[in-house]
Amino acid sequence: MSVRELVVLGTASQVPTRHRNHNGYLLRWDGEGFLFDPGEGTQRQMLRAGVAAHDLNRICVTHFHGDHSLGLAGVIQRINLDKVPHPVTAHYPRSGQRFFDRLRYATAYRETVGITEAPVDTDGPLATTASYTLEARRLSHPVESYGYRLTEPDGRRMLPERLAAHGIKGPDVGRIQREGSLGGVSLEDVSETRRGQRFAFVMDTRLCDGVHALADGCDMLVIESTFLDDDMELAIEHGHLTAGQAARVARDAGVRHLVLTHFSQRYSEPDEFERQARAAGFEGELTVAHDLLRVPVPKRR
Fold it and tell me: Is it the case that residue 2 has pLDDT exceeding 80?
């Protein structure tokens, strides 16, 4: 059975707290696992969350600040220790190649898995499979940063009443799906477009075109809200978003489920992030993330 869910491994920003680990997010997408921004302590958080190295197919790093990447060394070594049998691909800003190299080979270990390095240096698709297209968009942060988006191809939803009207039933339903037509009846005559699911991951950034492009029409948007709205000037200065800004992006983009994360250690009251997001006009499903939370991707529309 296919599973599409977000496993939150850490939700802190620059400084971890007693209750929040540095960043780390695993997206389960059918049979693949996408590990986003493994910060320090990610390997231990994976253990606590029941996530194994074998679950990882792609590692996606938005940028090379430590809270988003220091966990790479341990995760990569664990992939090799466990001899993960399938290919693992790492995406990260090309400008940070020297940091990736240092983290990948931070200490001595036996390299048993060939990790494919696929650095990002422009907007656009990174990989396409039958299940998704993975793409990147440039963000606005003091160091080069990219957000990521998965888009499932649109499919077809069969309409029972139209099938019945054309006398199509039993094995012929599968046949028309495979072949596109049957006895002069086209697939379009008995079905409608089923919109593919869309997921986006947006970390450290100011408001920019990339944020809006990534969020557009998403079923789930995972987005940083490092600051509350009262600290807007700090957010702009340091290249971050506030809760209200993140929520307005989601509202305007038609996001169905908004996941706020990456909280500054200066705040001890997480409910305020939800209050400000609602005050900004976001009416969809809203989650203020905490460590080890599991959030299912909304079912298809």
Answer: no
Pairing of strands 133-138, 146-151: antiparallel
First to last CA, the chain: 19
- Would you please indicate which residues are annotated as catalytic (active-site) residues? 67
Report d(CA 243, CA 113) in Å as an integer. Answer: 40
Pairing of strands 4-10, 198-202: unpaired
Q: Quick one: pLDDT at residue 269?
A: 84
Count of CB atoms situated within 10 Å of the CB of 266: 12
**What is the enclosing helix (H) or strand (E) of 149?**
strand 146-151
| Model pTM above 0.90 | yes
Per the DSSP assignment, residues forming a β-bridge with 57 are none
Q: Are 260 and 225 in contact (CB under 8 A)?
A: yes
Burial of 267 (0-12, 13-18, 19+ CB in 10 A): middle
Q: Which helix (H) or strand (E) holds 174?
A: helix 171-179
Tens of pLDDT, residue by residue over 96-155, are: 999 999 999 999 999 999 899 999 999 999 999 999 999 999 999 999 999 999 999 998
Query: Which residue type sits at 156?
Result: R
